[in-house]
Amino acid sequence: VRAEISYVMIKPDGVQRGLVGEIISRFERKGFQLKGLKLFQCTKDIAEEHYKDLASKPFFPALVEYILSGPVVCMVWEGEGVVKSARKLIGATNPLESEPGTIRGDFAVKVGRNVVHGSDSVENGERETALWFGKDGVVAWEPTIKPWLVE
Ligand code: DAT
Ligand code: MG
């Protein structure tokens, strides 16, 4: 069985605000494994495909414009239960409802500037990783400390 992965992305506001290190740090400290990482200026096609389930929403054009407004940091994090856990680390979609201690709870106030994305299902973790990294983007490696993180 393939290990579970989540596609996590620091949105343009997170990059502009200098939160890249802080956000990566939270996933590292938790004990997930970084399998892909890049700074990337995305295209309209990718942004629209990524958010295609929201295409009929009134905020969709603004959402796509926001994602295109500057570079994003694309990441793939791996580990048992990483999809659900990453969503918890990230916090609720509306940052005014996100718990303190979550990324959005600590660093955001507006749904349209909520700093970070995380896949909402294992299936979307795979789909979004393929979309943003393609076939060769993800690095196969195992950290030497892994036995100290998982049995
Ligand atoms: P999440 O990013 O928590 O998975 P989502 O998938 O429902 O949330 O929506 C994707 C993004 O779209 C979200 O991070 C911010 C934007 N968005 C969602 N609901 C919105 C709304 N009501 N108004 C404006 N932007 C919204
Ligand atoms: Mg979502």
Automatic annotation (TrEMBL):
Highest taxon above the source species: Eukaryota
Residue ranges of every copy of the Nucleoside diphosphate kinase-like domain listed in the record: 3-140
EC class of the enzyme, as a word: transferase
Obligatory cofactor(s): Mg(2+)
Active-site annotation: 117 (pros-phosphohistidine intermediate)
EC number in record: 2.7.4.6
Reactions this protein catalyses: a 2'-deoxyribonucleoside 5'-diphosphate + ATP = a 2'-deoxyribonucleoside 5'-triphosphate + ADP; a ribonucleoside 5'-diphosphate + ATP = a ribonucleoside 5'-triphosphate + ADP
GO molecular function: ATP binding; nucleoside diphosphate kinase activity
This protein's record includes keyword Transferase: yes
Binding of ATP, residues: 11, 59, 87, 93, 104, 114
GO biological process, one term: CTP biosynthetic process
Keywords from the UniProt entry: ATP-binding, Kinase, Nucleotide-binding, Transferase
UniProt key word Transferase: yes
Family: Belongs to the NDK family.
Full protein name: Nucleoside diphosphate kinase
Native organism: Micractinium conductrix
Span of the entire protein shown here: 70 to 220 of 220
